[in-house]
């Protein structure tokens, strides 16, 4: 088994440097030699590194490359709001295992707007399992996305403030940046529901400081929509909605029209 290759593919997926990935468990220079198959890592050090990044030993040895690739496809389907594709991928991450069952249940409930139908016990279990304060790797950013719709708003504000104060967007890989932006957008939706304009302004300001790339062009447009909702600029909002429709993002345009109408009637 090529341990070095498997470690490297896992590290690259998480968007971490060698120094970040080895986490002080072994030296960076030694870890570099392991990735290049010039040194062998002990089982205890390997387990410590995997545990640090919440990677099970089973997944690593069973099919590390495939598991990492498949989980990224699942995450991508979720942030693309593609419930149909997500259902097709359910078999990829062994949904019989409890942790994957919970992740899929939450993802599908969020995408189908059925969070209110989840049992209280499921919500509490998800909060215990997914709330993490520590290194913001891809898994943590993904779990924050799952938490945004289910955590009490006061607690969520603490989590999101920690997120933006601990994140240097310029150092994130493209996929991590997508996960970050997706969680911020859904938090803005919570802010709008809670009528918390001050919190929303802080998120919008942070968002505007993120360099625009093709990976987050849509997210930037959607943030502008939220800014218009808070400021009451209906003319600009309608213009952005038209752009969304022209660019093939009709479902998002309809969503903002519905949000606007719902809150106008309250």
From TrEMBL:
PROSITE patterns: HTH_CROC1 (PS50943). Residues 7-60 form the HTH cro/C1-type domain. GO terms for molecular function: DNA binding. CDD domains: HTH_XRE. Pfam families: HTH_3. InterPro entries: Cro/C1-type_HTH, HTH-type_regulator_Rgg, Lambda_DNA-bd_dom_sf. It comes from the Bacteria. PANTHER family: TRANSCRIPTIONAL REGULATOR-RELATED (PTHR37038). This is HTH cro/C1-type domain-containing protein.
């Amino acid at each position: 088994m090529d341990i070095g290759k498997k470690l490297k593919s896992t590290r690259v997926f998480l968007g971490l440097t060698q120094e970040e990935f080895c986490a002080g468990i072994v030296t960076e220079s030694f870890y570099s030699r392991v990735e290049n198959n010039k040194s062998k890592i002990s089982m205890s050090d390997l387990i410590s590194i995997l545990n640090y990044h919440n990677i099970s030993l089973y997944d690593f040895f069973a099919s590390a490359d495939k598991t990492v690739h498949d989980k990224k496809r699942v995450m991508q389907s979720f942030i693309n709001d593609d419930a149909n594709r997500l259902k097709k991928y359910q078999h990829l991450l062994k949904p019989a295992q409890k942790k994957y069952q919970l992740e899929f249940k939450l993802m599908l409930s969020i995408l189908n707007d059925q969070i209110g139908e989840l049992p209280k016990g499921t919500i509490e279990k998800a909060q215990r399992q997914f709330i993490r304060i520590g290194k913001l790797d891809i898994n943590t950013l993904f779990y924050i996305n799952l938490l945004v719709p289910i955590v009490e708003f006061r607690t969520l504000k603490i989590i999101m403030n920690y997120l933006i104060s601990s994140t240097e967007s310029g150092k994130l890989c493209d996929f991590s940046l997508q996960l970050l932006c997706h969680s911020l957008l859904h938090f803005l939706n919570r802010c709008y529901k809670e009528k918390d304009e001050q919190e929303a302004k802080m998120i919008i300001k942070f968002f505007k400081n993120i360099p625009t790339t093709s990976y987050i062009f849509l997210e930037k447009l959607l943030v502008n929509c939220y800014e218009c909702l808070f400021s009451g600029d209906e003319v600009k909002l309608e213009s952005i909605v038209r752009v969304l429709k022209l660019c093939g993002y009709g479902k998002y345009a309809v969503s903002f029209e519905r949000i606007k109408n719902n809150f106008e009637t309250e």
